[in-house]
Amino acid sequence: MHPNSEYKTNLVGHDFPITDLGAIDTLLRLLYHVELTSSRFSTIWTTEMTFYTDHDTVSITIAQSKDNGTQIENYSDRWRKDEVGAYLEKLTSYKVPVSKDSVLKAR
Fold it and tell me: Using CA atoms, how far apart are residues 55 and 102, in angstroms rounded to an integer?
């Protein structure tokens, strides 16, 4: 997991194993159809996703951007598939944290 600069949070604050075969299949289908992009994003959250198989381990970094896009990064390339971030948020029940400053302004 990587600390996030704006909200000081990750998608999840601990390892979050995904064991549901339907969820895994959906994630793999979304990741299979990513499109290469060169844009830079201002991120809301980041997370490290690791896939384990009997023969290999693959890690990628996924970041959700302020424009509701998803940046997927390995060591040499960046891809974008906007549905991945929203699906990961749904799986992990992620809620954007409320900052202390916004609570004080509301009073």
Answer: 48
The continuous run of DSSP H or E covering 52 comes out as strand 43-52
Tell me the β-bridge partners of 61.
48, 73
What is the domain partition of the chain in residue ranges?
21-106
Residues 85-105 have pLDDT tens digits of 888 888 888 776 665 555 555
Mean pLDDT, the chain, integer = 75
Decide if 37 contacts 45 (C-beta within 8 A).
no
* Per-position b or e across 83-102, b if 16+ CB within 10 A of its CB: ebbeebbebeebeeeeeeee
Q: What is the pLDDT of residues 16-37, one digit of tens each?
A: 888 888 988 898 888 888 888 7
> Which residue's entry shows tokens 């793999």?
28
How far apart, in whole angstroms, are the C-alpha atoms of residue 63 and residue 44? 7
